[in-house]
Amino acid sequence: MNTLKELYNERLSRIKKAIKLEKTDRTPVIPFGDSFFAKATGVKLSDFALDLDISNKVILDGSKQIGNVDAVPCAFAPAPLMGSIFFSNLKLPGRELTDDMLWQIDERQIMTTDDYDTILSKGFEDFKKDYFAARINVDSSVFCEIVTNGPKWNKNMRDEGYPIYNNVTISHPIDYLSGGRTLSKFMMDMRRMPEKIQAVMDIIADANIKEMKQAIKKTVDPISVFIAMGRGCPDFYSTELWEKFIWKYLKKITDAIIETGVTANFHADANWERGLDYFKDFPKGTCVFETDGTTDIYKIKKKLGGSICIKGDVQAAKLVLGTPDEVYNYSTQLIKDMGNGFILSSGCSIPPNAKVENVKAMVSAAAGK
Q1: What is the DSSP letter of 234?
Q2: Which of 157, 208, 284, 307 is least crowded, fewest Cβ atoms below 10 Å from its Cβ?
Q3: Is residue 33 within 8 Å of 350, Cβ to Cβ?
Q4: Would you say 49 and 94 are in contact if contact means Cβ atoms under 8 Å apart?
Q5: Which residue ranges does the record assign to the Uroporphyrinogen decarboxylase (URO-D) domain (predicted)?
Q6: Do strands 89-91 and 263-268 pair parallel, antiparallel, or not at all (unpaired)?
Q7: Rounded distance, CA 138 to CA 106, Å?
């Protein structure tokens, strides 16, 4: 029987081979779970969201419960910081919400157009610190806690044989600006002051890339950089706007990740079919396209299957409303059809009300039993 260290190395090797589109002994399976693990282990969402130590234990215990997974998505759930990604206030269970209600972004217009000038004059790092302190309910102590205890939480996972798939995260500038201004107002800004918006996005992208590279240096066995790009879907924009304000910065971020030798993981919420051809720009085996079940995974395979690893795609509806046999059969068919360069996973995050037996069925499909 393998030791935990041997199991860790075996799983890590399997994942890295899949990313490089190489043949593996079996398809790796990495469910994307956070709130689901709290429900599955009987922990209140309020405790999970407000205590990072608890979230670390819950993700570890939940991963063990659902079967032989190849990695955990992350070592803890930084729910109190979710609003920081979108420059918005956040409602948390046990704080603004009832104990078992999922956290929610409270998107309202908080940024003004004057803030663009502030970013251009002061830089993004200083602006961000002031913004978090004065305008949204981000607890700065959580950042400090992650810096202090993050290595311990990561080690807890590795010591139990689990690689951490999303070691590092980077945000596209669109998430900050469209959240702080609201998406509708930011779309008007892109039309009214395109040069200024691009200058601001240049500054944000450079600052985020710098921070990302520093994080990679501090990370043990980095696998992928999670690129948060929920507001970048091509269906939201004309082709001209998408190329100018989304693709330009997504490519810049991705090229910077590839230069470090770490995998770029595109977390592609919504329908990206109009933009798939653009991803052919990246070298073979350097990226993962992670779909939430909205983009047709077979179209991804047809367009990108020869160059990019595909991750997905068991949809939330199947995990909540389906039967174990339905989930198992769908997962098995995906494994057969996707072939090499595939990581079986949930379509985006597993919903908290998913059936545990359905998630177990997905995981067991990767092992063929």
Answers
A1: G
A2: 284
A3: yes
A4: yes
A5: 179-366
A6: unpaired
A7: 12
Q: How confident is the model at residue 369, as a pLDDT?
A: 67
pLDDT at 258 over 80: yes
Question: Any idea what DSSP says for residue 242?
Answer: I
CA 201 vs CA 110, 229, 278: distances in Å: 18, 14, 20
- pLDDT score recorded for residue 279: 98
Radius of gyration of the chain (CA): 20
Q: Give the per-residue pLDDT at 367.
A: 82
pLDDT for 157 beyond 70: yes
* Per-residue model confidence (pLDDT) at position 344: 98
The DSSP-derived string for 42-101 is: T--HHHHHH-HHHHHHHHHHHHHHT---S-BS-SS--GGGHHHHTTSEEE-BTTTB-TTS
At 199-228, the pLDDT tens digits run 999 999 999 999 999 999 999 999 999 998
Strand partners, 224: 166, 263
Closest to 241 in 3D by CA, of 275, 284, 214 = 275
Burial class (CB in 10 A: 0-12, 13-18, 19+), 38: buried
| Residue range 52-62: mean pLDDT, rounded | 97
